[in-house]
Amino acid sequence: MRALPPAPRRSRSPWQRFYGAVLARRARRLDATAERLPRPVVSVGNLHWGGGGKTPFTIALASHLQATGRRVGILSRGYRRDSAGVQIVSRGAGPELPVGAAGDEPYEMAAALPGVAVVVGERRAEAGRRALAELVPAPDLFLLDDGFSHRALARDVDLLLFPSADPWAEGRLLPSGRLREPLDAAARADAVVLTGAAADDAGAGEALARALAPHGYSGPGFSAAAECGPVRLETGVALARGVRVLALAAIARPAGFFAAARNACCEVVAEVSLRDHARYSPADLRAIERRARDAGAELVLTTAKDHPKLAGRLAFPLAVLPLAVRPEAGFWRWLEARLAEPGR
User: Which domains does the chain have, with CATH numbers?
Assistant: First the structure.
């Protein structure tokens, strides 16, 4: 097993301690007034600002639960979308809204999950009520995307993800760190998952749980391996071996995507990363095309999240490299047992 770096100790910084105490009080206050939906809610979230593997994990979770016969609905904020209020992105037959109105991650989930409803809204409880009122058949279980810090909606299972590339984010809150909440907030989670782990990294999840024990966490730990799907052109045709590509990503942790592209039988001649959730302005597109021409690329290879924002807008063929996570078998056994508990 690859060694997991030890979790940082609690910060001695007065600012970090004060800010952490404020966040903890806020969480307790919101928990006391959280709205509850008349269906089980499973939350997927992380402590990091972006890049925890939440979207591929939510897709894997929805697929598994759907395969067990459940009607799954996903509730998401739809970060940086250009619409407001509650919007139904998909009733299960694919995206009904353009990517700008849906948000890139809800759009990606809607496209990847036939039979699963996706609803966005700033207030996730309101989005859930709308789903129950309007969707036929109504969901019998909700997944709360990016929900760990969204305490206004009560949840029955709280899953907390940690990316294997940077599990602790230096253990510090803003402005000097990259955590939304202190590592002590992990004590609220029902289970922790190390995402992006190697498929043969046995014991990585247990190591994660042990590392968080000094921060008050006492639940189980699991791992979820990262996998690449086949590279495909927009036409659905598999990409030929050795094609020269410009790898392009507007995600929180592009390094992982670039490494996967280099291992996907492509010759990566250039790498371009934009800020997470970038909209790809005309100036961005011109710069990408110029970089691709200068590097001698034959096409542009991008992520499933970025593809809808680029389709039909580049003067280069576009290909997609889907990335997925596969939780270990023990996680599914634990989740089914947890959902089967009385009251859940």
Answer: 14-70+140-227+326-339 (no CATH), 232-321 (3.40.50)
